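W.,

You were right to be curious about this one. When I first looked at the sequence I had no strong expectations either way, so I just let the prediction run and decided to look at it fresh. Below is the sequence, 182 residues in total, followed by the output.
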Amino acid sequence: MVSDEGAREKLGVDDAAIVNARANELAKLLWRDDGMSDEALNVRIVRAIEHFNSLKPTDGIEGMLAQQMVGAHFAAIDNLRRAAVPGQSFEARDKLLKQSIKLIALYTRQLQTLNKHRGKGQQKVTVEHVIAEKGGQAIVGNVETNGGRNAEAKPPGLEHKPDETVPLEVPKKAKVRQRKRK
């Protein structure tokens, strides 16, 4: 496999050309009104680049997803703007608003995907009953781990010395409810 640097060197492509290509890719995602001035178009392109950069992609997957997110965002905004144009039929306005809703939902799913890729997806588990037999250990409270890219990290060890004066109950099956991630 050829590295990014190796491909750039072999093909004679510098960083400026890569940045220019990304700007062009983002610009092609944007809807352009026929009467739009070059200045207005350039402002939209710069805004798209700002949105892309605000997502701070760290690898190729995040970069591709960030571009898609910028496209979905601008398409949703354009549909919302078109839906607000006075004098159009109810059906046309309704169709534009429904498309906007779909694009906003797409953007939300993309953001969830980005967060999951970055290891920020959260899962909540609620334990209702905990019974520790003599000599057993239980953790009660919040336990946090890196839970993502560096999942090898383990929570700190806990020491437990059972209190011999407290009689232990006969263990029953613990009920555990898990909240599914959406």
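Here's what jumped out at me. DSSP finds five helices and two strands in the chain. And, maybe more interesting for your project: The chain has a mean pLDDT of 82.

Coffee later to discuss?

I.
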